[in-house]
UniProtKB/TrEMBL annotation:
Highest taxon listed in the record's lineage: Bacteria
Membrane-crossing residue ranges in chain numbering: none
PROSITE patterns, per the entry: HTH_HXLR
Native source organism of the sequence: Brevibacterium daeguense
Keyword terms, alphabetized: DNA-binding, Transcription, Transcription regulation
Protein name stated in the entry: Winged helix-turn-helix transcriptional regulator
Residues in HTH hxlR-type domain copies: 14-112
Length: 231
């Protein structure tokens, strides 16, 4: 099968056109999105990117490696598993993902009711994260999200820090001290931070510790009632 011609081969020197040569294929930016918060195994990516087949995923990862956007490495013992992660240059695509999301929220065809992966919900929170004037002493929240698109998924844990200067959220694999711990499905948490639902309206969201810390996190990352999802 002949490879697709690049825009450069048509004497188009636009950098945006070249970017589309690198990441414009179907599924490519979705794979990148799922790697923005940290490395994943092939099976993890296939699980999180619902609808992609193993052959297509293999090809897209091969292309991303070839372009220097993704690299593959082996975790040390005892795991010894191969994972894919973004290179430093590839990590810069978070700002591209955010810009695309903020642009697309104006689309009348946006599937507002559709669910999102744990990383996608958190990326939406990061895109809208802001400082909190109410967090004078700073608040830390452990957020465990279970993918409600899948019946048997393990929760993914993130650590959020809310201060008067900024709000940050990152994926974490180790237990860390926090003022509050939250456990929720992606559907319920999306309803809270994107749909504007109050915590009290979602009794299946479990909060241990400071409820005020959780409310500060929601306030600092929420898109507001009725606002569409940017992920």
């Amino acid at each position: 099968m002949a490879s697709r011609r690049s825009y450069g081969s048509y004497n188009d020197g636009c950098a945006a056109a070249h970017a589309l040569d690198l990441i414009g294929e179907r599924w490519t930016m979705i794979i990148v999105r799922e790697l923005l918060l940290g490395p994943k195994r092939f099976t993890d990516i296939q699980r999180d990117v619902i609808g992609i087949g193993p052959t297509v995923l293999t090809q897209r990862l091969h292309d991303l490696e070839g372009h220097g956007i993704v690299r593959r490495r082996q975790l040390p013992a005892p795991a010894r598993a191969d994972v894919y992660e973004l290179t430093e240059w590839g990590s810069g695509l978070e700002s591209v993902n955010t810009a695309l999301s903020l642009w697309a929220v104006e689309s009348p065809a946006l599937p507002i009711e559709a669910d999102m992966s744990p990383d996608t919900v958190v990326l939406a929170m990061r895109a809208h994260a802001r400082a909190s004037s109410g967090a004078r002493e700073g608040q830390r929240v452990l957020l465990s999200l279970t993918d409600s698109r899948l019946g048997d998924s393990e929760p993914v844990t993130y650590l959020a820090a809310v201060t008067e200067e900024a709000t940050t959220i990152r994926r974490t694999l180790m237990p860390e001290s926090a003022d509050a711990e939250v456990s929720a499905t992606t559907k319920d948490w999306k309803a809270c931070v994107i749909g504007g639902a109050a915590l009290e309206e979602l009794p299946e969201i479990r909060v241990v510790g400071s409820a005020e810390a959780v409310r500060l996190l929601i306030s600092a990352t929420s898109l507001g009632g009725g606002t569409r999802a940017a992920g």
